[in-house]
Write a structure and sequence with these properties.
Oligomer: single chain
Largest sheet: 2 strands, parallel
Number of helices: 14
Structural class: mainly alpha
CATH topology: A middle domain of Talin 1
Shape: globular
Radius of gyration: 20 Å
Strand order of the largest sheet: 1-3
CATH superfamily: NCX, central ion-binding region
Distance between the termini: 59 Å
CATH architecture: Up-down Bundle
Number of strands: 4
Number of domains: 1
Length: 355
C-alpha cells in the first residue's frame, strides 16, 4: 500500500485561530461589547474549520458507517455546545431559533450558494436524484415532527414537553433508519456520489488529525461558552431579538466550513456532494441534535426544552422543506435556482429582523 503524503498548507480560516487567545482574555476581563462577540465568532470559525478538516481526513480512512457517526458527532458539535450553554443561561428562544435557522440556512443559503458558484462555471449541473429525494423526504418527516408540538400547544393551550420528548425519540429513530438505508441496505445507490474526489495528499497524518479533532472539540466547548456570554450584552446593545440572533448569526457562524466545502465541490462539478452536505447538515440538526437537546435539557432548565416554535418559524421551515422537495425532483440545477434559494433565505431573515 502506498503511503499517503502529508503536507502543511495555509487556509485563510487558519488565521482566525489567532483570535482564540484574544477571546479568552476578553472573557476573563468581562469585556461585554460587540467587538468581543466578533472576536469570539472569528475564533469559532477557525476552530470549526479545523474540526471539519480533521473529521474529513479521519472519515476517509474508516468504514462508511463509522464515518457517518464521526460526522454526525463532530460536525454539529459547536451547535450542540452553544445550545447547551444557552439553555443553561435561559436563552430558550435563541436555542429554538438556532435549530430552525440551521435547517433553513443549510437548505436555502448553503445549497443556493453552491448552485451559484457552480452555475457561474457550468451551464447546468446534474446530481443524484435518489440521494436528493431521500433527503428531502426525510426533511419533510423532520418538519412534521418539529411542527406537531407547536400545533398541539396552539390548539390545546397546554405545554407540549411530553409530546416533544416522544417526537424527539421518534426523530432519532428515523435518523438511524436513514443511516441504515443509505450506508448498509441500499448503499449501492449512493456510494459513488457520496464519496469526495480522491485525494492522494492529506494535510495531516491520521494520528495528528485525531489529536487535532479532540483538542479542537475541547477548545470549541469553551469558545461556545464565551460566545453565549457575549450574546446577552449584544442583544441589549444592538436591539436584535434572541430569535433573530439564533436564526441568523448563530446558525451562520456554526456552518461556515460546510458552506465553503459545498461551494468548492460545486466548482468541481460535484453538485451531488454539495447537496448532500447541505441536506445532511440540516437533517443532523433536526434528527440528531434536537433529540439530544430534548433529552439533556431537564438537567439545564426547569421542565426541560420543548419543541413549540413561533408561527413564523413554522412557516419558514415548512417552506424550506417544500423547496427542498422541489430541488430534488429533476436532478438538474443552474445558477438562477441558486439565486432564488438565496433570495428566499434573505426574505426569511428580513422578516425575522422586523419581528
Amino acid at each position: 500500500m502506498t503511503k499517503q503524503k502529508q503536507y502543511w498548507h495555509f487556509h485563510f480560516l487558519d488565521a482566525f485561530l489567532l483570535f482564540v487567545p484574544v477571546s479568552i482574555a476578553f472573557y476573563y476581563l468581562h469585556v461585554g461589547t460587540i467587538f468581543s462577540f466578533l472576536v469570539t465568532a472569528a475564533s469559532l470559525a477557525g476552530i470549526t474549520h479545523l474540526i471539519a478538516e480533521a473529521t474529513n481526513i479521519i472519515a476517509r480512512r474508516v468504514s462508511n458507517t463509522i464515518s457517518a457517526l464521526i460526522n454526525a458527532t463532530f460536525g454539529n458539535a459547536v451547535e450542540l455546545f452553544i445550545a447547551i450553554f444557552a439553555l443553561r443561561d435561559g436563552l430558550v428562544n435563541l436555542v429554538k431559533a438556532s435549530i430552525t435557522g440551521s435547517i433553513i440556512l443549510n437548505v436555502l443559503l448553503l445549497i443556493g450558494l453552491s448552485m451559484l458558484a457552480g452555475g457561474f462555471k457550468y451551464k447546468e449541473q446534474r446530481f443524484n436524484k435518489d440521494s436528493a429525494g431521500l433527503s428531502s423526504t426525510m426533511l419533510i418527516v423532520a418538519v412534521v415532527g418539529l411542527g406537531l408540538p407547536s400545533i398541539y400547544s396552539m390548539v390545546v393551550g397546554a405545554p407540549a414537553r411530553q409530546m416533544s420528548l416522544a417526537v424527539s425519540i421518534i426523530l432519532g429513530i428515523v435518523y438511524l433508519l436513514g443511516l441504515l438505508y443509505t450506508l448498509v441496505t441500499h448503499r449501492h445507490l449512493f456510494v459513488v456520489e457520496r464519496q469526495a474526489p480522491e485525494d492522494t495528499h492529506s494535510r495531516w497524518s491520521e494520528g495528528t488529525a485525531v489529536a487535532i479533532l479532540l483538542v479542537s472539540t475541547l477548545v470549541a466547548s469553551f469558545e461556545s461558552l464565551f460566545l453565549v456570554k457575549t450574546l446577552e450584552p449584544l442583544v441589549r446593545q444592538t436591539g436584535f431579538t434572541e430569535t433573530f440572533m439564533g436564526l441568523v448569526f448563530v446558525a451562520l457562524l456554526t456552518n461556515i466550513p460546510e458552506n465553503l466545502s459545498a461551494m468548492a465541490f460545486a466548482r468541481k462539478n460535484n453538485m451531488t456532494l454539495s447537496l448532500e452536505i447541505g441536506m445532511s447538515s440540516a437533517l443532523q440538526i433536526a434528527l440528531f441534535v434536537v433529540p439530544i437537546l430534548i433529552l439533556v435539557s431537564p438537567l439545564l432548565i426547569s421542565g426541560g426544552l420543548d419543541l413549540v416554535f413561533t408561527p413564523f418559524e413554522l412557516v419558514a421551515v415548512v417552506a424550506t422543506a417544500m423547496i427542498a422537495n422541489y430541488i430534488g425532483s429533476d436532478g438538474i440545477c443552474h445558477w438562477v435556482e441558486g439565486a432564488q434559494l438565496i433570495a428566499v433565505y434573505l426574505l426569511i431573515a428580513t422578516a425575522f429582523y422586523f419581528l
